[in-house]
Write a structure and sequence with these properties.
single chain, mainly beta, 3 strands
Length: 57
C-alpha cells in the first residue's frame, strides 16, 4: 500500500472542517503509487450525497 503517512479519522476530520465539503464518513489508503500518500475520502453532504475525494499528502 502506498500510504507512507498515517492519518487518523480525527486528524482528517479536523483538517476537513476548514472546508464546506460535508461530514467525514470514512477514509482508506489507496493501493499503488510510488511517491505520495493517497486516501479515498468519503463525505456525506447535507443533501445526502456522498463524495469520494483523493487526499494527497
Amino acid at each position: 500500500m502506498a500510504v507512507y503517512t498515517s492519518v487518523s479519522h480525527a486528524e482528517l476530520d479536523t483538517f476537513l472542517s476548514d472546508f464546506d465539503l460535508g461530514t467525514l464518513v470514512s477514509h482508506q489508503g489507496i493501493d499503488g503509487g510510488i511517491e505520495n500518500t493517497n486516501y479515498f475520502v468519503t463525505l456525506k453532504t447535507d443533501q445526502g450525497n456522498s463524495r469520494v475525494c483523493t487526499y494527497f499528502i
